[in-house]
Write a structure and sequence with these properties.
Shape: globular
Number of helices: 4
Oligomer: single chain
Order of helices and strands: EHEEEEEEEHEEEEEHH
Structural class: mainly beta
Largest sheet: 7 strands, antiparallel
Strand content: 15-25%
């Protein structure tokens, strides 16, 4: 498996160092993945056991920045590891990720509870994320002291990036957070608050591995403090169905959904059932309802009907029998016997 396989979209062309391979990257000999993971997780857990974290906010602002400090001898500060799976926030959690015959543990801190009305991205959606990235290493010039060094930061992001075009650690962890609120005042920077804020600790096998970057050595375990500001739902194959709805088996992965078995994942396939009719054609509403305009069914339908239109917005993509509402129906664009 190619660990660094990326799908790039022209309309999400922002290049963000923490997420995409740099043009100036260079590779070294590939190490054994299991051996390298053992080294990475050891240094990450050493850091979690010996350091505490403080959340820093500027006066009047919801910053959710963090500082890490080594617990001094005899210190009573709680280590980050002591927060593992606790009830209150901040809390340390683990996500397991299987790749290259290894089950990676990705530790991540949730700094606060998600905003209840926020949106969580899927791994095929666009996300606007502010971040700071550092890497972990033992400093040979300082008695092998466990140290961090910043290699990149973007505190004021302008663009979205698609989460399945980034390093695997980001793809796995960012969807576990939700957006918050924003305040837009003309002539002033947008103010975000209540956003999902966290810290992820990424083994190099879910980062850049042997691909050295500017200011970042190869085989570096990474730490990102991040803030999820906004989400954009994508339609990566431009078939009229949002990519988030093309996870047919509902497991959140998207690369094991191939309805017609043609080797193209549904979220990248403009003809999901390989019946010779594009999905975009099959999900058009009848022109008699729309007054001649091309309007597509929403995947699930709207919660309420708009009385000012000639069609019923509550109708989602139907099955072959014309059922618009049953949640488990086989929608017509996934049934090769129905056009």
């Amino acid at each position: 498996m190619n660990k660094f396989r990326f799908y790039f979209l022209l309309f999400f062309s922002a290049i963000i160092f923490s997420c995409n391979k740099s043009d100036s990257s260079s590779s070294v000999t590939i190490r054994d993945f299991a051996v390298q993971y053992a080294s990475d997780i050891a240094i990450i857990e050493d850091f979690l056991n010996t350091h505490y974290v403080e959340v820093v906010n500027s006066s009047g602002y919801d910053d959710q920045d963090v500082t890490f400090t080594k617990i001094p001898d005899g210190g009573t500060q709680p280590s980050m590891m002591s927060w593992l799976n606790r009830e209150e926030y901040p809390k340390l959690l683990i996500k397991e990720v299987e790749l290259d015959d290894i089950v990676y543990k990705v530790y991540y801190l949730k700094l606060r509870e998600d905003y209840s009305a926020g949106e969580a991205p899927t791994r095929v959606d666009g996300a606007k994320v502010a971040y700071k990235g550092v890497y972990l290493y033992y400093d040979e010039d300082n008695n092998n002291a466990l140290s961090t060094k910043q290699f990149d930061a973007n505190p004021y992001p302008d663009n979205m990036f698609v989460l399945n075009t980034v390093i695997r650690g980001w793809t796995e962890i960012i969807p576990l957070f939700k957006t918050g609120t924003k305040t837009v005042i003309e002539g002033q920077p947008t103010l975000y608050s209540q956003f999902g804020a966290g810290v992820m600790f990424v083994p190099s096998g879910l980062g850049y591995y042997n691909q050295a970057q500017v200011n970042l050595p190869s085989y570096s375990p990474l730490i990102f403090n991040f803030k999820l500001y906004a989400v954009t739902r994508t339609d990566q194959d431009a078939d009229g169905v949002l990519s988030m709805y093309e996870d047919i088996n509902g497991n959140g992965i998207f690369t094991d959904d191939d309805t017609d078995g043609d080797g193209i994942y549904d979220y990248l396939d403009p003809d999901d059932d390989q019946d010779g009719y594009f999905t975009k054609t099959e999900i058009k509403r009848p022109t008699s309802e729309t007054g001649g305009y091309t309007i597509y069914y929403d995947y699930n339908g709207a919660a309420e009907d708009n009385p000012n239109t000639t069609y019923d917005e509550r109708q989602g993509i139907p099955d072959c029998s014309g059922d618009f509402y049953t949640a488990t129906r086989l929608r017509k664009h996934l049934n090769k016997n129905c056009h």
